[in-house]
User: What shape does this take?
Amino acid sequence: MADDKAAQHDSATSHASDAHAADAHGAGHAHDPFEKGHLIGHVKDAEYFEFPRALGGKIYIPQLLKTDKPLATISTGFKPIDDRIEPFDLKITKFMVLELIAAVIVIVLFTRLAARIKRGNAPKGSLTNLLESMVVFIRDEVARPAIGHHDADRFMPYLLTVFFFIVGCNLLGLVPWAGSATGALATTGALATLTFATVIFSGMAKLGPVKFWLAQVPHMDLPKPIGFVLKPMIFAIELLGLCIKHFILAMRLLANMMAGHLVLAVILAFIAASASSIVWYAVTPASVLGVVALSLLELFVAFLQAYIFTFLSALFIGMAVHPH
Assistant: This one.
């Protein structure tokens, strides 16, 4: 009996301690808007959409599966990357919802555009003309110069899908209280993995499996004994470089989109930091104007980063199907 009371006392003390820590943590967030975890929380993926309290506060996404513990966790040993890798727990997150919305928008818009082109009708309307001009730009200024006129059209569906999906995710990231799905390594990593698979399989389909991998080693007139030693080392370096190029492809998009939203969060944090001071009246207009200006820059970056990702994807594909 005494042991039960002692256990209950310890449990109560533990809960009180945890509650105190949670209060202190929440207070830290309330009084320190520049705290690292608080800022990162605004750009990370989550199981809810966070709105102002007047609009309902946190709205949690219904989950199909209830899992208390993640099924698996991935750790690279490099903390900046590990902080961006979410555990594998089969939960639906807001970035998944935003990706689905972006995909549906792309499907609806281009189904209509493809039907119009198939019928041979002239483009009508500003949106149709805008989409068609962007498609022509990707074909004539990205795919054909990087891959070649004969092979480019085969890869146009993939390149267009990647470009407009990234644009859609980036633009949704500019919607207040939404979030940028391209600010997650899971999204950019999946896109880079698709490009990597396209590069490998298209190269093997064009050259043959053996010739494709042999083509990774540049032609060198070396004596046989030296070539026997150097060529396997060069092949390993080229193979590592192939993997690194696609890893950087994912990290470039991730870093640019996440950095822009972090800067926006920092600028807005100045308003909260000066809330109890008379300086607030000067800081708030300056912060709001700064956010508006930076949001316009982010609008440009949304298209620029989609273009860069698509161009590099086309370049890697072109290098695979035309190694020389």
Observations:
- The first helix runs from residue 2 to 31.
